[in-house]
Every structure is written in C-alpha cells, then in structure tokens.
Fold this protein.
Amino acid sequence: MMKARLFLFSLPMLMSASAAQAAEGSTDPLATDPDLAIWTFVVFLAMLAILSQVAWKPIMEALKAREDNITGAIAAAQRQHDEAKALLAEHQAKIAGAADQVREMLAEAHRDAETTIAKAKADAKAEFDAERERATRDIEQAKDAAVRALAERTAGLAIDLAGRVVKQEITPARQSEIVREALGRFGGNGPSAN
C-alpha cells in the first residue's frame, strides 16, 4: 500500500517530465508519445485498482445498505398501510353496525310509543265508558227516587183531596196502605223510558 502511494505521488512528476520533453520536440498536437501512453494506462489501472478497494467497495456497500433500508422502509410502510386499511374497514363496519343499532332502537322506541298511546287511549275509553255507565246508573237511580217521591207525594195529595171530597177521615195507616197500592199499580205500568 505504501508503494502504491509513493508511485501515485511520483507519477505526476514523471508525467510532467515526459510532457515537457514532448513539448520541446514536437509541435504536432495529434502526435502521440508511446511512453506517455503506457504510463497513462498504468496510472489508470493503478487508480482503478486502488479505487475499487478503497472507494468503490464502501460506496457500493453503502448504496446496498441504503437500498436495503429503503426497501425495508417501503415494506414497513406497506404493512402499516394495510393495517390502516384493515382498521378503517373495521371502524366503518362498527359505525355501520352502530347506525343499524340506532335505527333499530328508534324503531323499537316508536313501536313502544305507539303501543303506549294505544293503551292510554284504550284505558281512557274504558274509564270514560265506566264513568258514563256509573253516571247513567246514578241518573236512573235518581230518576227512580224522584219518580217514587213524586208518586208518594201525588198519592198523598190525591188521598187528601179524595178525603175532603168524600168527607171521610183517613188515618195515616190507611193512607200508607193506599199509597203502597197506588205505587204498586204505578210500578206495574213502569216508568217512562225517557
């Protein structure tokens, strides 16, 4: 290695000496000096050998390492891209499932609301019908009581009037008996359906 360095340092001096000799003797720019051509070829081969060991091998190794690094980075990026796509698809499926669940829950709530409304209407109608029936019974009872009271009073007035007309005295016991008989006949005819 040391010899190669000494040769490289002495080579320019040799080349400049032979170039000086060529310049003194020849004026033709296309003229070739065989010694200079040989030394140039030897220097080229020496530089080629030295650079292949010292520079090209590390440069090629560095380029190979960089290429491997870039290839690995591309592969890692592709894996991450594929993972991201899978995660995106999974999240989109979850979102679609959640949207379906929300629609299903809304439909169920709507059905529940309709059922509750229908039940409330049915309960209100049943309560209204029961209240109307109770009110009708109360009215019938009040009407029957009013008719009885009216019949008793009318019968009492009729007996008093008849007693005056006939001039006979009717005792309260006899009056009650007559009223019962009148009510019996009056009840037999039945109250008015109005």
Residues 141-189 form one domain. DSSP finds three helices and no strands in the chain. The chain has a mean pLDDT of 80.
